[in-house]
# Entry
Amino acid sequence: MGSRIVSFELCGREVEVLVSPMATLQSVLRSQLGYTGTKEGCRQGGCGSCTVLVDGEPMMSCLLPVEDVEGRRVTTIEGIAPVAGLAPIQQAFIEKNAFQCGYCTPGMVVLTKTLLDHHPSPSRDEIIDALGGNVCRCTGYAPIIEAIEAAAAGATTDAGRDAGDWPDPSGER
Amino acid sequence: MKVAGHHVLDAGPREVFDAACDPATLLAVIPGCEAIEQVAPHEYQGSLVLRLPGVGATFRTFVRLVDADPPHAAGMEGRVEGPMGTIAGRADFGLTEVDDEPAHDGRPGAGSDGRSIASRTLLEYRGEAVIQGPLARLDSRFAESLANTLIAQGLQALNSHLIEASSTVAPASGRPSPREAPE
Amino acid sequence: MTVVEYFLPRSLAQAVDLLSRHGPDLLVIAGGTVAMPLINDGISLPRQVMGLRFVGLDEIEPSDGGLRIGATTTLTSLLRQRHVPMLAEAARRTASWSIRNMGTVGGNLFTPPPGGDVAVALLALDAEVTLEGSRGRRTLALSEFQTGFMTTALEPQELLTGIGVPAVAGETTYVKFGRKEANTPSVVTVAVRVARDGEVVTDARVALGAVGPHALRARKAEAVLVGSSLEPGAIDEAAEAAAEECEPFDDGIASAWYRRAMVRLFVRRALEELVQHVALEGR
# Structure
C-alpha cells in the first residue's frame, strides 16, 4: 500500500517524485530531489528554517504532506536567485551581515523576498511581524531587519556582482 | 506526571467502593474502555481506546488494587501500554462519607434515616506516573491535562451509574433522585 | 512515519464517505499544524490519515448579519476578512505568517491550550459549529462543543464543517497576553463582548483562553457585568470573579498562580479598554 507519484512545479520546473504516504515536502525536497537549501530545524513548525513558498505563499514544509502540493507551484531558496547573480534581498543579507551560521537564512530569504513582493516598502513593524515565525539564534535579528530595509530601499550594490551562476541542484543546468 | 483532585459522588462509600471494583461498572464508566477482565482477586487487565485528534490509539492496561481498606481507601498500581509509550504509576484514593451537607442545587443531602443509599461520598485521589517512550517527549502538562479530563469524565459517568443503580433498587418513593431518601 | 494511506478527498461527500468506511481510526487533519508535529515526533502513529485541504470548506461569507466560516478556512483568510474585526485580531495574534497560511479555523477548535485562541474570540461571539456525518448534520453551541482537554462533542463519524457567527450586539475587545509579542503561546487570552442599553449592560460575554482544558466562558464574571454600568467597582468584581472561576495550569510558559493573576489583570484591562473605546467613539 502506499507509495504514489506526486507531480508539482518546483522552482519553475515540473517534477515527478515517488513518495511514501504523507512524507513531508521538506524531506522529499532534501532527500529525494536534492534541493538541500531548505533546512530541517525543529520539524514542529516553530523555527521557520524549512520555509518554502506554495503558490507564492510561505508555508512550513516540515508540516506539509507532499501530496498536498500536487499540481501546485513550489519555490525554495534555489528558486529565489535569478539565473545569474543574486536577488537583491540575498545581496542585502550579505552586505548587512545578516547571518552567521546561516542555518536560518534560506527560510529568512524565502520569507522576506515574499514580503517584499507583496509589500515593496514595509514598515519596520511590518518586517518584525513578518519575521515572527522565523528564528535566528545567532545575529539577534537587527542585521536581518536592516537587510530587509536595505533591500526595500534598493540600497544594495548591483545584485549579481561576483556571485556567478548558482549550480542547479539537479545538475541539469 | 502528577494528578490530584476530588469529586463528590451521590452514593455511599460502600457503593462507590464496590462499583470501583466491579469490572462491568468499570467497563461502562471508564472513557474509551473497550474490555476489562478480572485476572486475580485484585487484578484487572483491559484495553483502553483513546480517540484524540493526533494521538488516538489503543492502550493495554494492567491495574492491581493494593493496600485496600474497604470502603475507606485503596491504592492502585498500574501500567498503560500503547504504541507511543508506556505510562506506569500509582494512585491512592480516599473515600469519606459526606452527610447532611446541602447539595449544590440546595436540595438536602442524606436522609435522616442514615441509609447509605442517600448519602454522598467525597472521593479524593492523588496519583503519580512515569511516562516512557515518545509520549514522554510531550510537555507533562499534556498528559496531566488529558488524565484530568479523562478522570473527570470517568467520575461523572460513575456518578450517573451510581444514581441509576440506586434508583433501580429504591423505587419505593417513586422519585428517581437518590438524594431523596425513600420512606 | 507509520502512515500507510493518506486520503485527500475532493468534496465533503467524499470525506464523509471515507470517514464512515474507515471509522474512528482515520486521523483527520486540515492545516496539519497540530497533527504533523506529533507525527514528526513519533508521538502520533496513525496508519490512515485524511487531509481536508481540498474539500472546499474554505469560504468565508456574510450571512444574516453574521459570518459563515468554512472549517478549513485558513487563519490568513480570517485575518483578511473585514466583517468581524475581533476575529481578524484573534487570527493576527495567532502563530506566524507561514503557520497562518496553513492552520485552519476549524483546526484551531481542536488545538489544546495554551493554543486555540481563535476559539476564545468565537466564544465571546456566541459562535456555533456545524457537524456533518453520514447520519446528517447538526449544529451545536461552541461552548458545548469543547468538552475537555483535546476532547469534543464530535461523534466518531462526524466532521466539523463550519463555524457560524451570529449577528450579535455589543462592543468587543480581544487581548492576548504572551511572554513575547508575536508567535507565542498564550499566558492568558481574554475576549469580551458587552451590549448596553444606554449605560446599563444588557448582555456580556467574558471568554478566557489558556486557563482551562479548553476555551472557557467566565459566567460568574458575565453575571456581575449584566446590570452594571461598567463602573470601576463592577469591572474589579468581574475580574475577580473570572480569576476565581478559571482553571489555570502550569506549563513552560507560566505557572497556574501567574495565569490566575493575569486573568484578574487582563479581564480588567479588556473591560477598561472597551469602556475607553466606547467613550471615544461616542464623542
About this structure: The first helix of chain A runs from residue 25 to 32. Chain A has two domains: 4-79, 88-152. The radius of gyration of chain A is 16 Å.
